[in-house]
Amino acid sequence: MSFRQKHLLGIEPLHPEEITAILDLADQYVDLNRRDMKHADALTGLTQINMFFENSTRTQASFELAGKRLGADVMNMAMQASSIKKGETLIDTAMTLNAMHPDLLVVRHPHSGAVDLLSQKVNCAVLNAGDGRHEHPTQALLDALTIRRAKGRLHRLNIAICGDVAHSRVARSNLILLGKMENRIRLVGPPTLVPSQLAEFGAEIYEDMTEGLKDVDVVMMLRLQKERMDGGFIPSEREYYHRYGLDAEKLSHAKPDAIVMHPGPMNRGVEIDGEIADDINRSVIQEQVEMGVAVRMAAMDLLARNLRATRANAPVEV
Q1: What are the tens digits of pLDDT across the range 89-138?
Q2: Model confidence over 244-257: pLDDT tens digits?
Q3: Residue 192 burial (CB < 10 Å; 0-12/13-18/19+)?
Q4: Residue among 144, 170, 177, 179 nearest 58 (CA)
Q5: pLDDT tens digit string along 250-283?
Q6: Are residues 159 and 181 in contact, defined by beta-carbon separation less than 8 angstroms?
């Protein structure tokens, strides 16, 4: 199995075979998670600390469940009420954590690059659970696993990523991952939310949903990130839904067997019609949630293997 990374900070550093290694192992953990006995011992004896400087119920719950199912001692730190609020710097926090000797550190932070900075200051494996507008690697990996299981492959597919691309780290990570796996990617949305420079990633840009969804295999909707908007990016939610919200009429332009995705949480009636979101024949949104636990189990398992191998080769301290 080919996976040589010390941390999982983004999709950008990963080779295609490393992406495949994570997805292949995650497939095994999907099977484990569907059994009555859902526990394995890959992280037994290791300590996992979850540090979420931004709220995220599903991502934090998913990482916590993943760690516990693999046998780790899991601790959640309430960063909103932490010493950071009292003036402690991120570096000081890293040094404090290091003194606790954690093995896996899961970090979500509102500023791009903060997770990378932490990884340089601690002696453990760090996983990026989302940093600013930069990346959200495990979301892209779980999306990839969902697509692969639904379509039987993860290459040479036509995939439309629709909506608020400008503010979305999920879109950025998916754009990088799906590009590495030789897919044809379309970005669909208003010019205010789909920057033209993203064409540099090899994506095609569409302003019209009808054209953008024509004959695609996958329709990936994005959440409107209103908390990151500081101006008039859309005229109104009603107008946005009329032009860019996914409904049956717009979806009819995709392939008949196209799947519908959304990273959640969804704004029904704004980004997606409720009936489409709940359509068991088209929507794989609940499968995405299930794949999230398996992918995070696989990522932590592989990082723990590399961590143990590194420590085994380190000189013994006297």
Answers
A1: 888 888 888 899 999 999 999 999 999 999 999 999 999 999 998 999 99
A2: 999 999 999 999 99
A3: middle
A4: 170
A5: 999 999 999 999 998 899 999 999 999 999 999 9
A6: no
pTM above 0.85, yes or no: yes
**Run of H or E residues at 285:** helix 285-313
Task: Please name the residues in contact with 79: beta carbons below 8 A apart, sequence gap of 6 or more.
Answer: 51, 52, 53
Give the span between the Cα atoms of 162 and 164, in whole angstroms: 7
CA distance 29 to 23: 10
Residue with tokens 């970005």: 187
* Residue 239 CB partners (closer than 8 Å, separation 6+): none
Q: What is the DSSP string of 75-101?
A: EEE-GGGSGGGGT--HHHHHHHHHTT-
- The number of beta carbons lying within 10 Å of the beta carbon of residue 92 is 13
Q: Are 72 and 43 in contact (CB under 8 A)?
A: yes
Q: At what angle do helices 285-313 and 137-151 cross, to 10 degrees?
A: 120
To the nearest 10°, the Cα dihedral for 38, 43, 47, 48?
Answer: -60
Handedness of CA 240, 244, 246, 249 (dihedral sign): positive
What are 98's two structure tokens? 């290091």
b/e string for 59-86 if b means 16 or more Cβ within 10 A?
bbebbbbbbebbebebeebebeeeeeee
Helices (H) and strands (E) in the chain, counts: 11, 9
Q: Which segments within the chain are labelled E, that is strand?
A: 47-52, 73-77, 104-109, 125-131, 158-162, 184-188, 204-206, 218-221, 259-261
Residue, of 239 and 22, whose pLDDT is higher: 22
State both tokens at 42: 């890959």
Q: Name the residue among 303, 246, 281, 318 with its Cα closest to residue 14.
A: 303
Question: Three-class SS of residue 195?
Answer: coil
